[in-house]
Amino acid sequence: MGRKKLKALYIRRLVQLIVLAGIILIPFYSQNPYQWSPSRIVLGHLPPPRVLPVSGDTWAISFGNFTLIHPLAFVDYIVSTKSIYLPLIGAVVIPLVLTLLLGRIFCSWLCPMGFIFELNQKINNLMGRIGLRWSFRIRDYRFVFFTILLIAAFFFAIPALSVFDPPHILAREFMFIFTHHQVSLTGTLFILIFLLIEAFSVKRLWCNRLCPSGGGLSLLGAKRVLNIRMDKELCIKCGKCDDACPYDLKPMMLSEDREIDWLKCDNCGLCRDVCPVSAISYHLGMRKRIEK
Ligand code: SF4
Ligand code: SF4
Questions:
Q1: What is the 3-state secondary structure (H, E, C) of the chain?
Q2: Which of 50, 52, 87, 202 has its CA 20 to 30 A from that of 238?
Q3: What is the reported pLDDT for 4?
Q4: Which residues belong to CATH 3.30.70.20 in the chain?
Q5: Span 41-66, mean pLDDT?
């Protein structure tokens, strides 16, 4: 029997909760909504100063003078403006290196919408059990949408990727609520529609098949060094890892020397967590190609 390990899920949930709390609390405290009102501005009162030295969200965040930006925000900016603002290079280095080395962990470990979609998957499971789930087959359009948005950003000079980045959409909604006391119909409808579809139909539809940001991050992390690894000697072929994988990647295939769709695997670690004999673990190092 393999050694029992700390579940990645516990750490992942903690990180996801901190990020979600951040995108709610940052606009709440930085704009100080209780002292802000349009009528006061009209009367000549300026909005109160920021309470927090932190601003931004998962797309770009500043701690005082220290800024980090999402790798795709950097790409979006360059493609839409056809220029490079030099300070942004420093801001993207850490997130870019992390993505290149660790893959699209942004999706599984940081994205607050991914977190909400994960919780929503439990409703999908329940609907499946009581026969209220209607599933349909749909191809993976993530790379297609990613390419279309980059083309749109180039030709129309708009940050098209940011418009369809779900965590940025969610953060924008909180910003609207706390600064303008309103919700945007497009952003709210987008989120609600996908929550409903995923509850009653295809599980994790957005992350699995449609998310352009997920597609872009998959490409950036294609040669990552953090991967899951299977110890074939330990595997008892119980199939629990296949059931746990949110993208139906069937990690049990690794025990038969068959590849999974590594571009889609986001290192969530759910397969590792459920394995009763700890046959799956995280591994740092280049992935070995499986000989046919
Ligand atoms: S959960 Fe573990 S033992 Fe079961 S099939 Fe997957 S790797 Fe093998
Ligand atoms: S294969 Fe494992 S780590 Fe990869 S997405 Fe599926 S459950 Fe997560």
A1: CCCCCCCHHHHHHHHHHHHHHHHHHHHHHHHCHHHCCHHHHHCCCCCCCCCCCEEECCCEEEECCEEEECHHHHHHHHHHHCCCCHHHHHHHHHHHHHHHHHCCHHHHHHCHHHHHHHHHHHHHHHHHHCCCCCCCCCCCCHHHHHHHHHHHHHHHCCCHHHHCCHHHHHHHHHHHHHHHCCCCHHHHHHHHHHHHHHHHCCCCHHHHHHCHHHHHHHHHCCCCCEEEEECCCCCCCCCHHHHHCCCCCCHHHHHHCCCCCCCCCCCCCHHHHHCCCCCEEEEECCCCCCCC
A2: 202
A3: 63
A4: 227-284
A5: 73
